[in-house]
Amino acid sequence: MDRNEVIRRIIEADEKARIVPEKARAELAALDDELSARREQMRKDYYDRAEKRIEKVRETEAEYADAQIAKIDAELKHEIERIEREAESRRDRWADELFRRAIAEPEGE
């Protein structure tokens, strides 16, 4: 091998040696971009799942609250009806008592 051939091979090797790090840096940058995109997609997916869970909990809590309100309303309605029935059954006695007191009629006569 002559001197020119050796120099040419050294120059070629040097050029190849320069290409390898540049290519590696480009691949590394592409990997960083891909990792960033994947990380962002994972974050978006996580937040989407979390929002769905939160919405499901909200719905469940709202259903429970509605059921509790309906139960309380039914209990109150039942109690009001009971009090109204009791008042109705005593209405005549109260009216008689008020009438006696109004005319000052003594009790038991």
Describe the structure.
The longest helix has 101 residues, at 3-103. It contains one helix and no strands. It is rod-shaped and about 145 Å long. It has 109 residues and is an all-alpha fold. It has one helix at 3-103.
Write the layout of secondary structure elements.
Blueprint: H1 3-103
Low-confidence stretches: none
Report the span from N to C terminus: 148 Å
Structural class: mainly alpha
Number of strands: 0
Helix segment tally: 1
> Strand count, sense and closure of the main sheet?
none
The percent range for strand residues is: under 5%
Radius of gyration: 46 Å
Q: Note the run of SSEs as H and E.
A: H
What characteristic shape results from the CA principal axes? rod-shaped
Please state the average pLDDT score: 88
**Helix proportion range:** over 70%
Features:
0% strand; 109 residues; rod-shaped; single chain; mainly alpha
What is the gist of this entry?
By secondary structure, this protein is mainly alpha-helical.
